[in-house]
Design a protein that fits this description.
By secondary structure, the protein is mostly helical. About 65% of the residues lie in helices and about 0% in strands. It has six helices and no strands. The chain has helices at about 1-15, 30-40, 55-70, 75-85, 100-125, 135-159. Helix 2 (about 30-40) crosses helix 3 and helix 3 (about 55-70) crosses helix 4 (about 75-85). The model has no long low-confidence stretch (mean pLDDT about 85).
Length: about 160
Amino acid sequence: MRQVLAVCLIALASVAAAVEPDEILDDPALEARARDISRDIRCVVCQNEPIDSSNAGVARDLRILIRERLVAGDSDAEVVQYLVDRYGDYVLFKPPFKPTTYALWLAPFALLGLGGVAAASALRRRKAGTAPEGLSPEDEAKVGELMARFDAEMDKKDT
């Protein structure tokens, strides 16, 4: 039980260490907004980690930038738009549905559909009886002859 607790505390400490004390705003409402925004912004170095929990230098710079923009009076949407204008839709964990991101949003469904078509086709072929036929009489005779030779060889070794 103590080991599980220790692992949980270490995991929490590593996440808590990402936002450094000198970054935290004095106004709790602004700090909460900054944390909400930074949870939805992707670290451009870590790629699959939000800047809120990333220790990368770029993530720190982005966290500070978000807080500066909020203190300057920008709305949450304006801060996010500023980051998108600067880094592109890549920084968003949930990019918008627009022509440049259609492939990103539709590819999983297309792959799922192709997999379904392939599975249905395979099942249809199996039900239609397109399974390979048995051996021809000539091939069966050859196999029988080879098996007889093999048995004879094995009998020689046994004696």
